[in-house]
Amino acid sequence: MDFIYKKLIEDELKELELSLNDSISSDIQLATEVSNYLVGSGGKRIRPALCILVAKALDYSGKDLIRLASSIELLHTATLIHDDVVDESLTRRGKESIHAKWDNAHGVLVGDFVYSKAFQLMASFENPEIIRTLADATNRISEGEVLQLTLKNQSILSEKDYFEVIDRKTAELFKVSAITAGILCSSTDTQLSGLSNFAKSLGIAFQIQDDILDYYGEEKLTGKKIGKDFEEGKFTLPIIIALKESTEENQNKLLSLFKKGEREDFPKVLALLNKANTLEKIEEVFHHYTKECMKELNHIPQNDYKIALEDIVSNLGSRLT
Amino acid sequence: MDFIYKKLIEDELKELELSLNDSISSDIQLATEVSNYLVGSGGKRIRPALCILVAKALDYSGKDLIRLASSIELLHTATLIHDDVVDESLTRRGKESIHAKWDNAHGVLVGDFVYSKAFQLMASFENPEIIRTLADATNRISEGEVLQLTLKNQSILSEKDYFEVIDRKTAELFKVSAITAGILCSSTDTQLSGLSNFAKSLGIAFQIQDDILDYYGEEKLTGKKIGKDFEEGKFTLPIIIALKESTEENQNKLLSLFKKGEREDFPKVLALLNKANTLEKIEEVFHHYTKECMKELNHIPQNDYKIALEDIVSNLGSRLT
């Protein structure tokens, strides 16, 4: 099952690709080549789609939308490039990561180049509130990255810290995609607050789904390798909940397997997760956030774009159960 | 001999330190700690000083100046942090580099944090021209970094490429420091163009001086280790000029020593540079740019701040001969 939005805003998504392509073209050939390697490789474009759908749902007809959506996608891409350098990840979007295909230096500097292109787009808006909202988000995301670094050396990540990190690293850019679209449409403060709550919950649900799929997904469906978080020693919600819900004996077993991070132990880890009913518990958390999403969508008038937004929410859930 | 500006704008430079300190303070303690390690360690503050002096020379009395100067210094600091990751440099401002004291991840992510703080400051200006000028500069600087990466694998760096890189990596931020100060003061286009030429030439002279001092400086005076560029295999103007001015035999000797980059060979390299009269030739180039600086300063009315700007130019030269 595919998302409704892909058809509904097909034209805008095509314009987005052209705009992204145009934005990263530079006199410095290497900058264009390396950034296009990742920017041109697709990805779900969920953040720009969110931005476009919200603006369309609020009846926007101006000329700034694709530029706004592009700046958000470029900001997202820049963080991915630097994330891969920091995590030493070898793959991204089914290809070698920039860091792996070239080296550290290319990852750092081309990441900076893509950031700078995002900032140039941001700086092009007439409305200073849009520029400030995007700059503040950039800062909160970057703080989230540093927070994650701080928490890396802890033996266990708390649920509170997990949510603090994903609020900054994932939910923030979702939030800003919806809020800036609202600002473009001169939304009221009540509307903006509703959009913010909606997109924040969507971002959290999106991240939780991603974390669940890393343990319970099917590689064929998701295109992603299962067990990557486990192997990289990344504390995500499945492990956090399983630890909370397990007997002390199983907690110790789980922690010891998690610390080793050996692929061959993954079935044992799954068995321990199942004993603690992890999937059920985590789906409860997930559905809490998708319900929040649906509730906050009430602020948006009924139209096809709103239906597409609801579809994103329910489509996320349908991939789980 | 010290720069006049340090006394003349002492109060503003103190305010700058407070503003920098304030800007990098964050809920995320590690972000503050690591960025303060470099931001708080001084440095010449030549770019913010330039910005402050130009605005004062043009009789600025508004409230935006320190914020502007801070955003420029933070942008500069962020590039230093990422430069050190990319070059794997172990020292910066006489201390261990962030990358060396912590690790790669801290360098990349705290660099991003400092960038994001620079952008937040930039985004705070009412005048969109200032925001756009700073965003464009960020992009040109980042393109310069990628260009340098492209040129790294070439066996020889041409003089043209050398100037293209320093124009982007060094002169650009000098230029923007002066131009944005001019924009704050509602300067005419002619004035802005004069400021731009002045600061660009100053940036180039500053970089050439830095490159000369790496071969001919005294560690006691500069606080920097001599021969670092040579050991790191960095093609700078002394080597480029020496190669141009040497016999074929000496060219080959020089290139072969340069490729090895052994500290013990440094005296031999200096001897080859001397045979080609490198210092004389490079000083000609240097003085071409300082003369340009002085000429372009004619656009600025005569006052103490202008004298301090002239002093920066002549002080640069006095450290050489």
Describe this protein's structure.
Chain A is built from 17 helices and two strands. In chain A, a hairpin with a 2-residue loop joins β1 and β2. By secondary structure, chain A is mainly alpha-helical. In chain A, α5 runs antiparallel to α7. Helix content of chain A is 75%, strand content 1%. The model of chain A has no long low-confidence stretch (mean pLDDT 93). Chain A has a two-stranded antiparallel ribbon with strand order 1-2. Chain A has a domain of 220 residues: Farnesyl Diphosphate Synthase, CATH 1.10.600.10. At the A-B interface, α3, α5, α7 and α8 of A face α3, α5, α7 and α8 of B.
Map the helices and strands.
The structure is a homodimer of 321-residue chains.
Chain A: H1 5-8, H2 10-23, H3 29-39, H4 46-57, H5 65-87, E1 91-92, E2 95-96, H6 98-101, H7 104-123, H8 128-151, H9 159-184, H10 189-216, H11 219-222, H12 228-231, H13 237-245, H14 248-260, H15 266-275, H16 278-296, H17 304-318
Antiparallel strand pairs in A: 1-2
Helix pairs in contact in A: 2-5, 4-5, 4-9, 4-17, 5-7, 5-8, 5-9, 8-9, 9-10, 10-16, 13-14, 13-16, 14-15, 16-17
In short:
Two copies of one chain form a homodimer. By secondary structure, chain A is an all-alpha fold.
Keywords:
homodimer; mainly alpha; Farnesyl Diphosphate Synthase; 321 residues; two-stranded antiparallel ribbon; globular
